[in-house]
Amino acid sequence: MGAGRLGQAIIRGLIRAGINSANIAASVKTLKSAENVRKLGIKVFLDNEKVIRDSDLVIIALKPHTIINVLHSLATSFEEKIVVSVAALIPLKTYSHALNNAEIYRAMPNINVEINKGFTALCGNKGYNAELVEKIFSLLGEVVWVDEDVLDKLTLISASTPALVAELIDAMELAALYLGVPHDLARKAVINVFAGTAELTSIKDLLNIRNAVITPKGITIKLLRKYLSLNIKSSIMDMFIYASNELDKALKRFSEYSTTKSSD
């Protein structure tokens, strides 16, 4: 339900993993969106209810502020369905209250699911189909089961950060261009550094990686000294703390809104 940017990333990742596109259906809001999404080879509807009725497992990828009305208006259609919400902010209790006869989970993937390199946190009561839910998201990358409060924090740590990483890659690429490295080579070098270093952390701790590159009075230590003098690491931590406070406020607003709408 909802084939926006994350919804389409999930669809592409599933197809790349070998899922038959004919077994995937999605809902969109406009005919133009339907034309674009239909190019993926899946069934596309302008009606959420048709997607629900046509599916055994329903992934809710709608914007948070639209979900509660949808849940209440289509509650009976969700009966005996497996429901996985990838929307931020809306707690499990809201889905459980609205959908009495559905098996409900929340997932927090990131955009890297499009190339099957995602990181997805799952939470729920681990019902009869928990293994199936995990298997499907495992096709898109790594999966972990967490408590719901941790899943909400991972909205920042794993779901939002591809945007930050993209900015860091762009900054290093611009620096390379300033230094005279050709554009295609700058992009290739920087991306390789990020991907390779990330993989290296699976066998070496961060300090070992850093110290393996540093030599006395070398360029790397001078680079790091300037980095430390700019308080970049502290600034990044401050950014996450600020964003976490904003997330907590949003969670509180949506929890109160969910409770009010559920009572209605």
Question: Can you put this structure into words, describing what you see?
Answer:
The protein is of the alpha/beta class and 264 residues long. The protein folds into 2 domains: 5-146, NAD(P)-binding Rossmann-like Domain (Rossmann fold); 157-243, ProC C-terminal domain-like (ProC C-terminal domain-like fold, Orthogonal Bundle). The protein has 11 helices and 7 strands. It has helices at 5-16, 31-38, 48-53, 64-73, 92-98, 130-138, 148-178, 183-200, 206-213, 219-229, 232-263, and strands at residues 25-27, 43-45, 57-60, 82-85, 103-108, 118-124, 141-145. The strands form 2 sheets. Strands 3-4-5-6-7 form a 5-stranded mixed beta sheet, sandwiched between helices. It has a two-stranded parallel sheet with strand order 1-2. Helix 2 (31-38) links the parallel strand 1 and strand 2. Helix 7 runs antiparallel to helix 11. The radius of gyration is 21 Å and the shape is globular. The two termini are 24 Å apart. The mean pLDDT is 93.
Quick structural overview:
By secondary structure, the protein is α/β, with parallel strands linked by helices.
Distance between the termini: 24 Å
The helicity comes to 55-70%
Q: Mean pLDDT across all residues, rounded?
A: 93
- The domain tally reads 2
CATH class of the largest domain: Alpha Beta
Examine the coordinates and then state which fold CATH places here, giving the name of the CATH topology of the largest domain: Rossmann fold
Assign the CATH architecture of the largest domain.
3-Layer(aba) Sandwich
Biggest sheet details: 5 strands, mixed
The low-confidence runs, each spanning 5 or more residues with pLDDT under 50, are none
